[in-house]
Amino acid sequence: MPPIYYGQRRKARSIMLTFAGRLNSQARQASAAMQAVPCIAVPPHFTSQDCSGILPDGTRCPERVHKSLSVRTHVCPSCGLIIDRDHNSGKLVVERALEMQAKTISVPVGSRKQAHAT
Ligand SMILES: [Zn+2]
């Protein structure tokens, strides 16, 4: 069963189920449990204002673009990214979820590869 991704309106499926905020969180957690996919609650702070663009050096753009709720397009003056506001927010939600998941993944001691003596 492919995991389902929440966080972007227009992209229905991705690698995991993520969500920002607490609205309907119980329903989403129940949906994830029924589909046996990871469910990660992501802090929603500034996901609609922070930029998801990538700078030429490969790092993520640190710009925070303040805008009112009626402004539906994210336009970054630093990296030049122009993207739908919800798409930008969704990309940040996924990025935060992957960071949170990476911190929780552990490898059982018995399954670690042993270095071979030469
Ligand atoms: Zn930017």
Distance between the termini: 43 Å
- Count of β-strands: 4
Radius of gyration: 17 Å
User: Which descriptor suits the 3D outline?
Assistant: flat
Order of helices and strands: EHEEEH
Largest sheet: 2 strands, parallel
Bound molecules: zinc ion
Give me the side-by-side strand order of the main sheet.
1-2
User: Considering DSSP H and I runs of 4 or more, what fraction of the residues is helical?
Assistant: 25-40%
Q: Indicate the proportion of strand residues.
A: 5-15%
Counted by DSSP, the helix tally is 2
**Average pLDDT level:** 78
Domain count: 1
Low-confidence sequence ranges: 8-15
- Secondary structural class: alpha+beta
Your description of this structure?
- Helix content is 26%, strand content 12%.
- It has helices at residues 25-35, 85-104; strands at 17-20, 39-42, 73-75, 82-84.
- The protein has one domain (17-100).
- The strands form two sheets. It has a two-stranded parallel sheet with strand order 1-2.
- The protein is an alpha+beta fold.
- The radius of gyration is 17 Å and the shape is flat.
- Bound molecules: zinc ion.
- The site of zinc ion has 8 residues, from loops.
What are the salient characteristics of this protein?
118 residues, alpha+beta, two-stranded antiparallel sheet, 2 helices, 4 strands, 26% helix, flat, binds zinc ion
List the topology elements.
Blueprint: E1 17-20, H1 25-35, E2 39-42, E3 73-75, E4 82-84, H2 85-104
Parallel strand pairs: 1-2
Antiparallel strand pairs: 3-4
Bound molecules: zinc ion.
